[in-house]
Amino acid sequence: MALYADLHRHLGGSVVPRVLWRYFQRRDLELSERFPDYAEFEEFYTRSRNTLDEYLELHTLVESVQSAETLPYFIYRLIRGAYIFENLAYLELRYTPYLRTSEALSQTQRIDEMAKIVEIVGKTSRVPEYPMVTSQILCTHSRLPYAVNRAIVDLAAQMPEYVCAIDVAGGDSHYAERLDEFIQLYEYARSRGIKTTGHLYETPDGCYPELLPYLMRIGHGIQIPLRYPHLLKDVAARNQCLEVCPTTYLKTGTLDDLHHLKTVFDRCFDAGVDIAICTDNAGLHNVRLPFEYENLLTQDVIDFRQLQACQEAAFRHAFAWPHDQPPASLLTEALTR
């Protein structure tokens, strides 16, 4: 039975390298010529980058081939792999719908097309042979105009059957010059009853305490226990959960050793702050959620008790999980009746 939940996975970074490369070979002559050999493509696609901004450039490669026509191809394979190989019972996919619309259209036309993208992602994520609860988090973006970001928030409110929350993404170092805009967007979202998370305190350049009160969960947030542990008391009081994505910090150059996360977990547990262990970009990393668990355990970052607590926290903080217990508890009850 599927047992796990992933609260932080990007649609753009979720395509595993083999699936993406095969798509190029079959359907995209330009990219197939650019990447004729799989081994070379895998090395390029999954290698570590020096900075978060450099790492995020890879998303544009996938976004360029994810459209209304091709999304069903990618999402079916994503769901199949998540269910069979990762034992996921629950998955939140996050992305910016505007970036899946055609650049040939005007801004107004692209905004109008976003609802179609959300519907396609929602419908194709529900695969009967791979029963899993799925929902979407729509990402506002640091490099998109305010009007587009506002339309993304409105879309989240209009399509609750598919969308469970909003996010802010695009590289946390780019928020500073538009911080007031993002505060306004989060205030607006909360006023409309939309749940919230946000890429924040991922890197030393992305620490904005002004945004913290508006978030129900914190995307990454590792710099809080590492650099600003005095904030943990308030994080705990707001019942905010950190979405920690271990492999990401090595791939982006944010951390040079996974063992730094031991401080993150220990300080959060001591302060009563929940952590959900997530994949972020499972395809870019060529890493699935059970491996994230195993890696943290074998490197003595966490112990089994802490792992179980994080797994339970993921369901407790899931925005669209329809039960009051995680699946393991539901299974235990069914088997002991």
Automatic annotation (TrEMBL):
Recorded GO molecular functions are: adenosine deaminase activity; metal ion binding
User: Where exactly are the transmembrane stretches of this chain?
Assistant: none
Keywords, comma-separated and alphabetical: Hydrolase, Metal-binding, Zinc
> Could you tell me which SUPFAM superfamilies the record lists for this protein?
Metallo-dependent hydrolases
The UniProt entry, under InterPro entries, shows:
A_deaminase_dom, Ado/ade_deaminase, Metal_Hydrolase
UniProt KW Transferase keyword = no
**Matches recorded under Pfam families:** A_deaminase
Cofactors required:
Zn(2+)
Q: What is its EC number?
A: 3.5.4.4
List each copy of the Adenosine deaminase domain by range: 5-320
The UniProt entry's GO biological process terms, in alphabetical order, are: adenosine catabolic process; hypoxanthine salvage; inosine biosynthetic process
Single GO cellular component term:
cytosol
Give the family this protein belongs to, as stated in its UniProt record.
Answer: Belongs to the metallo-dependent hydrolases superfamily. Adenosine and AMP deaminases family.
The protein's matches in PANTHER family, at most eight in alphabetical order, are given as:
ADENOSINE DEAMINASE
- The protein's name: adenosine deaminase
